[in-house]
Amino acid sequence: MKVALGVSGGIAAYKAAEIVRLLQDRGIRVQVIMTHAAQEFVRPLTFAALSGEKVITDMFATGNEPANIDSAIEHIAVAQSIDVLLVAPATADIIGKFAQGIANDFLSTLYLATTAPVIIAPAMNVNMWNHPATQVNLEILRKRAVRIVDPGTGYLACGMTGAGRLAENEAIVAVTLEALGASQELAGETVLITAGPTRERIDPVRYLTNRSSGRMGYALA
User: Fold this and answer.
1) What pLDDT, in 10s, does the model give residues 79-125?
2) N- to C-terminal Cα separation, the chain
3) Is 145 left (phi over 0), alpha (psi -120 to 50) or beta?
4) Could you say which DSSP state residue 204 is in?
5) How many CB atoms lie within 10 A of CB 87?
6) Cis peptide leading into 122, omega within 30 of 0?
7) 160 vs 121: which has the higher pLDDT
8) Active site residue 200
9) Phi/psi of residue 119, each to 5°?
10) Helix axes of 74-81 and 106-113: crossing angle, nearest 10 degrees
11) Which of 28, 149, 196, 221 has its CB 3.0 to 4.6 Å from that of 121, i.e. a possible disulfide?
12) Exposed, middle or buried: residue 33 (CB in 10 Å: 0-12, 13-18, 19+)?
């Protein structure tokens, strides 16, 4: 299973590193997508080292990287390869982009391109959280079946107290696992699957059987 973790530009961006670790502890691959603003708080190298995956920081090839068809349609390739898109922290900016269909960076474009379940964990100033525009955008996303992990209440980095603090990492991961259908109850277990027809002896001559092809068992295995 693979999760795309979108990290947008808020002070809570550093907490996303722990989310990567918690997901990996459950055997889940994590690829991180960072907005430009997120890179002001955490360097891409941090997530690359933790995840072991390429960290996507731009829509197109930059610097000395050659421009090619792979970089031009990378958002489509990622969209098709993931099982869940998780954005944590999700700022008011990225929430607004998702709600209004604005696709002007990799993360917002990925949201439009993927058919995987989407989860956002908002984090922002209390006044920004309570603003009608933010609440309208959240309601739009809820109607599109986007799962929202509501922020906690407490002391915020801006010095104010109220709603807007990023939800606890464990709560965010729990919602992600639910979306993946990964309760992990069978993690580490070895399962024996039998396939094909069975025969139950009645006596030395007769038996009961069925015409099972075994295809279901082979598919499960």
Assistant:
1) 999 999 999 999 999 999 999 999 999 999 999 999 999 999 999 99
2) 17
3) left
4) S
5) 28
6) no
7) 121
8) no
9) -130, 135
10) 50
11) 149
12) buried
Amino acid 157: pLDDT: 74
DSSP conformation letters of 42-96 = S-HHHHHHHHSSPPB--SS--TTSPP-HHHHTHHHHHHHH-SEEEEEEE-HHHHH
Domains of the chain (ranges plus CATH)?
2-180 (3.40.50.1950), 191-221 (no CATH)
Distance (Å, rounded) from C-alpha 157 to C-alpha 155? 7
Distance CA 108, CA 87 (A): 10
* pTM listed for this prediction: 0.76
Nearest 5°: CA angle at 65, between 32 and 80? 40
Task: Give the model confidence (pLDDT) of 15-52 as tens digits.
Answer: 999 999 999 999 999 999 999 999 999 999 999 999 99
Catalytic residue (choose from 158, 163, 171, 174) = 158
In order, the DSSP letters of 164-199 are EEPPPHHHHHHHHHHHHT---TTTT-------S--E
Decide if 24 contacts 15 (C-beta within 8 A): no
Residue 65 has pLDDT above 70, yes or no: no
